[in-house]
Design a protein that fits this description.
Layout (H helix, E strand, L loop, with lengths): L1 H39 L5 H16 L1 H36 L1
Helix pairs in contact: 1-3, 2-3
């Protein structure tokens, strides 16, 4: 009986450990992706920037994708989407200001 409880606890700790590792890697990859987008966005043409904004809005409004990713990474993914949209909107505003 005691061995079964220890086995269940061991499995639970392994699952929690894997989940924590996945969460950390996802967080790092989202930060890196945003960092790379900050470098790329000023070099994009106006047409490409418009395409990226449309694509980001599609992803932003995709309920299935948001629901699936939101199960595990809700806070980090929501921040990533908002920061990405703000980055695109700021660049678009800056370009329209100069035009």
């Amino acid at each position: 009986m005691f061995e079964n409880i220890l086995f269940i606890l061991l499995i639970a700790f392994i699952i929690m450990g894997v989940f924590m590792i996945m969460r950390g890697r996802m967080n790092r990859s989202l930060k890196y992706s945003l960092k790379m987008e900050r470098k790329r966005v000023p070099k994009l043409s106006d047409e490409d920037l418009q395409k990226r904004i449309k694509q980001a809005e599609k992803v932003h409004n995709n309920k299935f994708l948001n629901g699936f990713i939101g199960l595990f990474f809700n806070k980090e993914y929501a921040e990533y989407k908002e920061n990405l949209m703000q980055l695109y909107k700021k660049e678009l505003a800056k370009r329209s200001e100069f035009a």
